[in-house]
Structure prediction request, 470 residues.
Amino acid sequence: MPRQRKPVPGVDAKLLIKDAGKLLPEPSRRLFLRGAASLGALAVLSGCDIIDSDTSENALRVISSFNDRVQALLFNPHTLAPEYPESKITRPFPFNAYYSEDEAPEVDGEQYQLEIGGLVENKKPWTLPDLYKLPEVSQVTRHICVEGWSAIGSWQGVRLSDFLKMVGADLSAKYVWFQCAEGYSNTIDMPTALHSQTQLTLKFDHKVLPRAYGYPIKIRIPTKLGFKNPKYVTAMWVQNNDAGGYWENQGYNWFSGS
Amino acid sequence: MSTIEATERQVAVTYGAPHKVIHPVWVRVTHWINALAMLIMIGSGWQIYNASPLFGFTFSRHITLGGWLGGALLWHFAAMWILMLNGLVYLILGFASGRFRRKLIPIWPSDVLRDLFAALRGRLAHEDLSTYNAVQKLLYVGILVAGVTIVLSGLSIWKPVQLQWLTDFFGGYDTARYVHFAAMAVIVAFLVVHVSLAVLVPKSLRAMVVGR
Prediction:
């Protein structure tokens, strides 16, 4: 679970409770071993007691964190995600979340402040007008969902590494943690945060980021799967402890690099 | 001839085994590890497919592994290590020992046709399990190609940025997903034929367990 959420202006408490319910939309979600036929065959072949799903789940999570380390090694900070011409942009670009589009957070831009915390020299919160004044970078890259589908989008905003330097973040810290308006969260590794295409995104297709795509701030990371690209970001913390994330805590691979 | 096979033959001679070794121990061990890894990969792969189907169907939950996308991904990215490392050992030993060269080539189209018709009429000889007929050779070479394809296309879907040269080789991310699916379909079709024939000729199953 994400850690204690702070009250966010303009967020419906009922929606938060709904979210909690959707953590486990079906009872089998956490039964990793469900699947009779494959499982029966497995049982015969391996002779293992695979009814004990806790043991299997723990073993799988150990391998998943091994995969995190492998992916961190595979991650080349100089390798850029392929960029595409604007003509390749997927239109309409899909809305995607664990809730429906009309349940997406509605953040009041006038009251909005991006909270900065942790190992950072200047913790002054940022208003949207201040953020819009920063130098803009742009990318047309492929968003790849953990589910398998992909879509090409166009994002503009501030290069995250520039922003982190600007606020005096400790760049030797291990993680950057993002908190979102609806309670979603992500922790990413510092090398990815400093990648030149990792972007504090304020616009989609050169227009202010619409609600569906994460108004007012999305973190666009073309070197990671879509769920590692938080939307409706309200706080950013630089820290040395891994605060996990919404899906990561439920079993999606933590690093989830592309 | 590999030292492993030489040792096996020695063992066979020493213990007065009635038949020569058909499958050396490395073939049997890698075969069964592969069988286990493949079942996990296919079962979890079907569950992953269901999260974003490429075609107008999904796989029944009763034949998938993992329970939900996150669980299936954990299985898939764990068993991939077994599949890849075991497959690598098998390929290296297969080439180094000369087994592939001895058993799988040459394959002449005329022989394939002849053996295929013989098989369909149920007149294909299988007394000597150590020699493959042309259809077997073709199927075994085909499954090796499918195995390599499914691993490489899988890597290209897993790492479309870090291994983008590989993703490009498969025609880009979206196309690589279809390649990965097609390789799975080929492997599953092979499995159906392979298991059916093993059941029809039980001594072939015995050979893959005890070696002769």
Chain A is about 25% helix and 20% strand. Residues 13-22+83-250 of chain A form a domain with the Sulfite Oxidase; Chain A, domain 2 fold (CATH 3.90.420.10). Residues 53-74 of chain A form the longest helix (22 residues).
